């Protein structure tokens, strides 16, 4: 982290679901590279704490409560960002839910609805809100998952919603070109609150580590580095791509 550059000086970045875990890691990385970052999540106290942590690292940070499936809060996220910073250069769509571990055929309809709503539809709706404000050179990064390629049994339906994000990346890259690039990061397993049911049990954790070629789980910094690359001008000729950051786990549809 000490050797990072300043690729986002003068840029404004919104990261959804960014008060902890991978989203926070991405906000921190973009901020350390000079961006003014807007962090958001469902709970005010988490937003306030994240803003404080970022500011303590010298980052220009602003927080807005935004449950991604709440239309008014999505609108507010974009409006407040524009009021505070005047523009939007980067949007990272990171929110997801995995409310159940049932098989697909046993997943109840309200759970199916929630998975599609948070993991896919809300990403689209955030971008519909932000779209008119994205200018030439802007960039969108969607956060999918290695589970998009091989949905594991306990994450099957979640994995399928993440597969949809791969298609969404391709479709939006075409739709938003040439002004806005749209790319995607597909993280492997990262020990966060979200993945705690997989990564806190030692034998499960070991099993996941052994699935990688690099014999370790990912870190939020690994994911942040990839997202920052795709969002930056270093990737100015890259759009519609999925960057798998999973320690060499198999990734082919
Ligand atoms: P995490 O550490 O549990 O953090 C989740 C963040 O999202 C929190 O800041 C939470 O704050 C916020 N959040 C949750 N639901 C939200 C909603 N509906 N609207 C707005 N904010 C919401 O999770 P994570 O592991 O970093 O996961 C982030 C992304 O990475 C997800 O898209 C996930 O699918 C993907 N991913 C994770 C892994 C992994 O192994 N961890 C692997 C592949 C992909 P509040 O509680 O305050 O809302």
Describe how the helices and strands are arranged.
Elements: E1 12-15, H1 21-32, E2 36-41, H2 44-56, E3 60-65, H3 71-85, E4 88-93, H4 109-130, E5 134-143, H5 156-176, E6 180-187, H6 196-199, H7 202-211, H8 220-231, E7 242-245
Parallel strand pairs: 1-2, 1-4, 2-3, 4-5, 5-6, 6-7
Helix pairs in contact: 1-8, 3-4, 4-5
Bound molecules: NADP nicotinamide-adenine-dinucleotide phosphate.
The main sheet orders its strands as 3-2-1-4-5-6-7
Fourth-tier CATH superfamily name: NAD(P)-binding Rossmann-like Domain
The N- to C-terminal Cα distance equals 33 Å
Counting DSSP E segments of at least 2 residues, the number of strands comes to 7
Order of helices and strands: EHEHEHEHEHEHHHE
**Number of structural units classed as domains:** 1
Q: Helicity range of the residues?
A: 40-55%
**Rg:** 17 Å
- Largest sheet, strands/sense/barrel: 7 strands, parallel
Quote the beta fraction: 15-25%
- The residue ranges in which pLDDT falls below 50 over 5 or more consecutive positions are none
CATH class: Alpha Beta
| Alpha-beta content class | alpha/beta
Summed up, the helix count is 8
The CATH topology is Rossmann fold
Task: List the ligand species.
Answer: NADP nicotinamide-adenine-dinucleotide phosphate
Mean pLDDT: 96
Question: What best-fitting shape do the alpha-carbon axes yield?
Answer: globular
Architecture per CATH nomenclature, i.e. the level-2 architecture: 3-Layer(aba) Sandwich
Pfam family, one: adh_short_C2
Family: Belongs to the short-chain dehydrogenases/reductases (SDR) family.
GO molecular function: oxidoreductase activity, acting on the CH-OH group of donors, NAD or NADP as acceptor
Protein name: Tropinone reductase-like 3
